[in-house]
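Problem: given the chain below (129 residues), write out its structure.
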Amino acid sequence: MTAWLASIVGVVIIGVVIELLMQGRRMGNFVRSIYGFIVLFVIVSPLPDLLKADWWSVENENLVNTELVENLKAGNRQTQVNQILRTMGYQDALVTVFDNTVYVNLGVAIDDEKLTELQKALGDEVVII
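Solution.
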């Protein structure tokens, strides 16, 4: 960055000196045009390095809050289990997610046949209390 700024300052100083030497000469417009292209080139020269930069490196991957993503997944799973329970007639069930395991407290006693049916509908990662 410092070298880039130094080159811009150097080109501007050279341009001022050339402008002072070229006053009233016929080639002045041509020299000013060439000087303009040189200044433009010096200003744009760092762009290829910026475009080649690896913007999505390992350091940037840490910007994603993995805890937040896991909480969103757990909340989504909790909502899915609640919906299944409601469709099966368990309106007052309490659903909790802890360490990627879903715990369900039905609040009522059920027989083994209904428990097996409910477990099959909810999946193996759900623990029915």
